[in-house]
Amino acid sequence: MARKITLSIPDLLHEKMEEWRQSFNLSKMFQDALAEAILKKEEFQRRFQEDTSMSETIERLRREKRVSEGNFLENGRIEGFQWAKSAHYDDLMYALALESVTALANDERLAPCFAPISERDQLTDKHVRLFIQGWQRGITEFWNEIKEKL
Question: In this predicted structure, what is the pLDDT of residue 93?
């Protein structure tokens, strides 16, 4: 059974949320983020109580790195696919023609697509590049699905 809760967020975040509300399933995002945070806490507690070797620690960190990087890539892919679904044909062709992540990242016309991810605190350039790489995959996947139907 699902339960409703009330959350408080700063005014600026609320404004941005309202601007992007149609792009997100906020309930699902919160559930996923909360589940992930709880899982991390539980795993930390478990690791803290266990005596692990250095090789086990390194292997765990490698797995966590793959998951972390994969999340940025997958989130970018999803957002790219969604963008492509609503993009004007000319904009889609323009974005597809930009073949490198660097070209996409530096393009003024497409900059608004990446502004939300670029403005987040504590993100490295690597995270942003992974997101944009995923975004590029998303628009390419969309195009490959529909191009023969046009």
Answer: 96
